[in-house]
Amino acid sequence: MPLIETVQLTKRFGERTIVNSVSLTVQQNEIFGFLGKNGAGKSTFINMLTGIVRPSSGTIRLFDGDGNTAEWKRRIGVLPDYSTFYDSLTARDHLLYLSRVKGIRVTKKECDRILEEVGLAEHAGKRAKAFSFGMKKKLGIAQALLGDPELLFLDEPTSGVDVESSLQIQQLLLRLQKEGRTIFMTSHNLHEIEKICTRIAIMKAGTIAAAGSLSELQAKHRSWRTVTVRHAALADKPYELVSFVEGLGKHLEWREEALSLEVDDKRKVAALIRAFVHAGVDIYHVCGDEPSLERIFLEE
Amino acid sequence: MWAICIHEFIRLFRSVKSLITIAFIAGVSYWVSDLVNQAAGFISQHELTEGHALGVFALVMLFGPLFVFGLSHDMINREVSSRTVRFLVTRTSRFRIVLGKCFGVLLFWLCCMLVTFGTVLASVHTFDVKTFLECMSMLVYSVSLCLLLSVLIARPSYTMFGGIILGLFLPILGIWTLASSQPAAKWIGYLLPYAYLEKGEAYIGVIWLYALLFLATSALLFQRRDF
């Protein structure tokens, strides 16, 4: 069942089109990663889905069209970008107030449990104005978890957070997915997206440049693969071998005992090995890498 | 909506400015009512009751808009500029946010008026219902106008400046429209609460209609905003 469905969703600010006719579907129980460079339109897109920004045109359907907007708001949790808080309220007070705004009753004990999950248990009674950027981010995640939402929208949940907390948040997201939640998240941390997301979309200049599971995206980009050859040390690289290798592919990196190169055809790997043998250079190891998300992201 | 209303109400009560405002209004009202009470032998009972509430009436008519704008000029744009509004719009409807904010500020002024009229009641044992309603009408008009300003103007610093100007200008304009015989004054007078307060009775309802209009316009504008 699609939990999020957008059809030709567009947002214009004056003459500028920030999100251009994006149609996207997110299935239930997915962790959907949304990638894009700064200014690509990721946050505007997520803000349209959560009601922070009004679309210029197109449609949004959450929960397969089940219920109205007011009901959707009770079933979602949102971590907006640039989370700022009420200076005079403590972390616990924030959760109590925001749960009441949502129309749900949450006990102090429940608030403390959520704060513990994001690693803020010992700061429950501290005012938000004393919080660091990372702590505010954690509080942002905590408020998104209020009321056990079925669908979570998280805009860069781990940016500005230390490595340990980042791993803790990743574990939390994986656990929430196991429990049946659907998560729609943006991040600049490609390793994190690669690690936890079941499907990925890459946004470029307001449109979806690529979407699918990591293996689907890799398959699309597999025409270019990185070949690494470890060989005997070469004081002087034979001219013929160098000129042949240079013409074989792109992004060539050649150190004294290893070479890496991207080729678009597996027959070129065989040609590369033959060239080494022909030049009398011993080969110790050859391996071909799958295209990384980083490479896919940069190429899209 | 009620969570936002209570939050706004408590926020106002936590502010030192608000407490000073309440103390000032209650203090002046008590002083005037006591002064009028000393002249009780020279005036009728009906005039005495109205006289007791004269202090609070004069304060609200002359400084009510200034007090309201001074304390609540940023009731909406504060949340917008600090982006905390994002936590609200993703949880409840925009109409409820506007209504909650408005009710929170109104609740504060209702309490302020009850404290003030309560002080008068405790000291001279009179409670002028008519003056109480007139004061509340003026405050409802000011609060809803303040709400509209806070939705229209994005920066709290601008609404603070604009609010103070408007708060000072409104009573001056009101007095001019009542005193002047120029046609322009008459027309401008229709937009302000002072003429309706002077006419009294059912005309006071027009002030509430204006407040409703400001509230509806604020809700409509807020509905169309991106955060």
TrEMBL record, chain A:
Keywords assigned by UniProt, alphabetized: ATP-binding, Nucleotide-binding, Transport
SMART domains, alphabetized: AAA
Domain ABC transporter: 4-230
SUPFAM superfamilies found in the cross-reference section: P-loop containing nucleoside triphosphate hydrolases
InterPro entries, alphabetized: AAA+_ATPase (IPR003593), ABC_transporter-like_ATP-bd (IPR003439), ABC_transporter-like_CS (IPR017871), P-loop_NTPase (IPR027417)
Domain of life: Bacteria
Entries under Pfam families matching the protein: ABC_tran
GO molecular function: ATP binding; ATP hydrolysis activity
PANTHER family (UniProt xref): ABC TRANSPORTER, ATP-BINDING PROTEIN
Recorded family membership: Belongs to the ABC transporter superfamily.
Name by which UniProt lists this protein: ABC transporter ATP-binding protein
Organism expressing this protein natively: Brevibacillus borstelensis AK1
